[in-house]
């Protein structure tokens, strides 16, 4: 556990992190995460699929919709976590659930996936799933309709005692900010539906940019940008109840030099999505976003729940090599430093 002004803060680590390295198997990651002092992990579907392939006799890839096989792998991961003294905080990341037209093939697929993921939650022993705000085309922009979909799913989850953490993805189609997902959560009004907030998703969406030379949003002058960012953080601290924040994810971002092209890539992923997937280092490890501002705002709500390190550092293999243990320890230390810096400047 980390500490903030003497208070104990539960700490989590997202088990997918620093680029692609075949030596970073799930058992090795869990051992390193536990050794660094973390209390839990975020269990990602990519890690489940990779571990399932590793332990299968055929070494063949697992179909992401083969939920029976994935449940079996999930049970094995549950045991691995238990051996390492780690809790599985959440299953993530579930994408493109809300907003599909009634009766559409996409809506049917979203519900089939959600039910499949619920069965995996049961197998792994976690009670929470993360849903990112949809980046799909063709979905509704009406917040009442988005909220209705999430409320309907939350009611199904409630039957199992499960919760949903809704996160703003800063490249989302209609809900890219903390305020937009909070509006949707308020409209849905379900006790088991809350927020996953994220230092990258908010600072990288409202302040930073991967497509400009300055690394800043440039449709306003810098003073106005800073004023709006500070005002957003202050509004969060004054309006979001701490019990509706289910956990806070921590990461920074590299300033892109050269900037990314200001258009979707071949897969259709928008620039901020590419930035998120590959260029998110640990705090104090080469990034530049005002993540202390956002962390302070979340703490000012009264939130003292789970803090999770979630980094996607495509430069990681070159920076850190094969040994996960020093990196995991650096991750824990960077989180503690972040809490210390925020406390000192509060």
UniProtKB/TrEMBL annotation:
<dbReference type="InterPro" id="IPR013022">
    <property type="entry name" value="Xyl_isomerase-like_TIM-brl"/>
</dbReference>
<dbReference type="InterPro" id="IPR036237">
    <property type="entry name" value="Xyl_isomerase-like_sf"/>
</dbReference>
<dbReference type="Pfam" id="PF01261">
    <property type="entry name" value="AP_endonuc_2"/>
</dbReference>
<feature type="domain" description="Xylose isomerase-like TIM barrel">
    <location>
        <begin position="31"/>
        <end position="323"/>
    </location>
</feature>
<protein>
    <recommendedName>
        <fullName>Xylose isomerase-like TIM barrel domain-containing protein</fullName>
    </recommendedName>
</protein>
<dbReference type="InterPro" id="IPR050312">
    <property type="entry name" value="IolE/XylAMocC-like"/>
</dbReference>
């Amino acid at each position: 556990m980390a500490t903030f002004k003497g208070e104990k803060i539960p700490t989590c680590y997202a088990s997918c992190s620093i680029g692609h390295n075949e030596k970073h198997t799930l058992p090795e990651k869990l051992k390193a995460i536990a050794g660094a002092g973390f209390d839990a992990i975020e269990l990602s579907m990519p890690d489940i699929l990779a571990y399932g392939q590793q332990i299968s006799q055929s070494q063949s890839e697992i179909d992401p919709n083969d939920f029976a096989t994935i449940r079996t792998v999930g049970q094995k991961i549950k045991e691995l976590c238990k051996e390492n003294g780690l809790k599985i905080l959440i299953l993530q990341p579930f994408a493109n659930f809300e907003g599909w037209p009634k009766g559409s093939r996409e809506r049917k697929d979203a519900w089939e996936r959600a039910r499949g993921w619920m069965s995996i939650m049961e197998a792994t022993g976690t009670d929470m799933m993360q849903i990112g705000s949809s980046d799909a085309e063709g979905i509704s922009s009406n917040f009442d309709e988005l909220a209705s979909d999430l409320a309907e799913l939350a009611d199904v989850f409630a039957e199992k005692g499960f919760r949903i953490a809704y996160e703003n993805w800063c490249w989302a189609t209609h809900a890219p900010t903390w305020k937009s997902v909070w509006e949707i959560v308020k409209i849905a009004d379900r006790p088991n539906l809350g927020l996953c907030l994220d230092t990258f998703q908010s600072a990288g969406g409202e302040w930073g940019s991967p497509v400009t030379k300055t690394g800043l949003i440039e449709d306003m002058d810098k003073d106005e940008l800073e004023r709006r960012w500070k005002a957003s953080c202050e509004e969060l601290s004054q309006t979001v109840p701490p019990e509706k924040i289910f956990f806070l994810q921590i990461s920074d971002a590299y300033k892109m030099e050269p900037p990314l092209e200001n258009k979707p890539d071949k897969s259709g992923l928008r620039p901020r999505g590419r930035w998120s997937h590959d260029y998110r280092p640990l705090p104090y490890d080469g990034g530049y976003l005002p993540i202390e501002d956002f962390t302070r705002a979340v703490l000012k709500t009264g939130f003292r729940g789970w803090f999770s390190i979630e980094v996607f550092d495509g430069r990681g293999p070159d920076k850190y090599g094969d040994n996960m243990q020093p990196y995991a320890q650096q991750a824990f230390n960077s989180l503690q430093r972040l809490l210390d810096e925020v406390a000192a400047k509060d």
